[in-house]
Design brief:
Chain lengths: ~450, ~90
């Protein structure tokens, strides 16, 4: 499916820019040619499952197309993952070959992307017999990476060709190896748009490029949009050409939607609800938080909704295949882990069911943070939970029971120092309180902790 | 004036926990120059709300995003009980 799209685009507008970044600009013709070379090179090896561990966006995109040409299953690995980790995941999933641009490891399954030979016979490789599958990695509900298998069909399913995308210039701010990044890229690709992907993602560089390239379409997290509003002034924003502002990956709160409307009066502003497992579920562009019941009932994407014990479950034709991430999946229904409520005819996401904390769109598992804090001498007991933040969704809050006689100021510094060296930044507790005991529910579990 | 000092002191404390110890808090300084990223801002807003008892996002008219140090201070100062400016 993707390769037919690529061929169609190459035939229609071979010289139109497809991908642009810090290193240059590549046309639909360039990308298709690179994909063909990859496909020919890979077909000589006869593999049906190929891992991708690449930092160069055009190579990644060409590889997507190439693997679809071959009908091979693509396994997408974040470039930040070590080769050791990727090797382990490849072994687990029986992936015999992984394209990488990491030069530190050339043992199987790794093959350096520069080592794919261009074929002596410049013929078009045979199309794939089965719809190309794409395995993405998601943390699921317990923190260890699990694969979510989509097909190009399920990924392309909810997307549309529409005249409002004609001539669109996109900036991609999500990773191409993740669901959100692929969806945004495909939305642009389906409509023959150009996608800019920057290596340097500082806000000043992003704003500079939005202006220089007159970017029209941007999809990013609410956290990103808040930060952009805080760090730009009206004069800068006047120089931008944003026609479509999309929010995804986190709950989009009303104050932000209102502030964006005021800052970008001529843009269309859409907030979305999607997950790697369930796919794209709902979208609203009326400037009001939540999703209107009429849109959900009209069901434009074929998505069905159930609420069980306040948790939202989704059945969707565009969901991932298989039940990799949650044992509770039944007969096509995927639990989202989101606690929802109806308010004034709109579906609102009011919290997380599983105790997983969402900080600026990143998942944080309380158990992992608690484990690190327990290692600090002077900590008797600790409970980690999420505290609400209007800007970034939640922050990590730790309640600590100190050993008798310990100075809490000094213990706070020790805990933060330890966490800073062992945990990613967003997982280091942003709030910390010292208590004499952890509140316990009658069941014996700490209040608010699930499972 | 006193209210402003309370807000400024809170802001300085909060920024210090994110490693910002600059003494340059003149009113017209753009917030983006302070060097905070979105995570820092999320934390800073929580601390400001907890210390000052003001939730800027509960505004019925929507939250107007401040862009300078002065605007941020004024936002909280106007809404503190006893600020004398009326709500």
């Amino acid at each position: 499916m993707l390769c037919e799209l690529a061929e169609r685009n190459r035939a229609r507008f071979p010289l139109r820019a497809c991908v642009s970044g810090d290193g240059g600009r590549w046309t639909y013709g360039d990308v298709y040619e690179m994909a063909t070379q990859f496909a020919q090179g890979l077909s000589l090896r006869g593999v049906s499952r190929v891992g991708l561990h690449l930092s160069d966006s055009k190579e990644l995109i060409a590889a997507f197309i190439a693997l679809d040409m071959l009908g091979a299953q693509a396994y997408l690995f974040d470039r930040e993952r070590s080769t050791e980790h990727v090797r382990a995941l490849c072994e687990e999933s029986a992936v015999p070959l992984c394209l990488t641009d990491d030069t530190s490891d050339d043992e199987p399954p790794f093959v350096h992307v520069a080592g794919i030979p261009s074929a002596a016979v410049p013929s078009r490789p045979p199309g794939g017999a089965s719809p190309g599958q794409v395995a993405l990695w998601t943390s699921g509900t317990t923190g260890t990476p699990k694969s979510a298998v989509h097909t190009w069909r399920s990924l392309l399913g909810p997307l549309r060709e529409h005249e409002r995308f004609y001539g669109s210039r996109w900036m991609l701010l999500f990773a191409l190896t993740r669901f959100a990044g692929i969806e945004v890229f495909l939305q642009a690709f389906v409509n023959g748009g150009c996608v800019t992907i920057l290596n340097d993602r500082s806000m000043s560089r992003i704003v500079e490029h939005l202006g220089m390239e007159q970017i029209t379409h941007v999809s990013a997290t609410p956290t990103f949009w808040w930060t952009l509003l805080l760090e730009t002034v009206p004069e800068q924003r006047k120089g931008l050409s944003l026609a479509q502002i999309t929010l995804g990956g986190e709950w989009a709160p009303q104050p932000l939607l209102t502030a964006l409307r005021q800052a970008f009066p001529s843009a269309r502003i859409t907030h979305t609800y999607a997950s790697t497992e369930a796919g794209l579920c709902f979208a609203a562009s009326d400037g009001l938080e939540g999703y209107p019941v009429e849109a959900i009932e009209r069901n434009p994407r074929g998505v069905h909704v159930q609420i069980v014990d306040e948790e939202l479950w989704i059945a969707s034709p565009h969901a991932m295949q298989g039940v990799a991430t949650d044992d509770r999946v039944q007969r096509g229904w995927v639990p989202t882990g989101d606690v929802v409520a109806w308010r004034d005819g709109r579906l609102m996401i009011v919290g997380r069911k599983t105790g997983c904390i969402h900080v600026a769109g990143y998942k944080v598992y309380p158990a992992e943070v608690e484990r690190e804090i327990r290692q600090v001498p002077g900590v008797l007991e600790v409970w980690v939970s999420g505290a609400p933040s209007s800007i970034i969704g939640q922050v990590v809050q730790a309640h600590v029971v100190p050993a008798p006689g310990r100075s809490t100021d000094e213990l706070r510094r020790s805990i933060l120092r330890h966490c800073a060296t062992t945990l990613p930044r967003h997982q280091v507790p942003q709030l910390m309180a010292f208590v004499s005991e952890i509140p316990m529910a009658a069941s014996g579990k700490a209040v608010g902790r699930h499972g | 004036m006193k209210t402003e000092e309370v807000v400024l002191a809170t802001l300085k404390d909060v920024l210090a926990t994110s490693g910002i110890t600059s003494s340059e808090f003149r009113r017209d300084r753009p917030l983006r120059e302070l060097g905070l990223d979105s995570l820092d801002w999320g934390v800073a807003m929580i601390h400001l709300e907890r210390r000052l008892g003001v939730d800027p996002f509960a505004e019925p008219g929507g939250y107007v995003v401040p862009t300078t140090v002065g605007e941020l201070i004024d936002f909280y100062a106007r809404r503190l009980p006893g600020a004398g400016n009326g709500r």
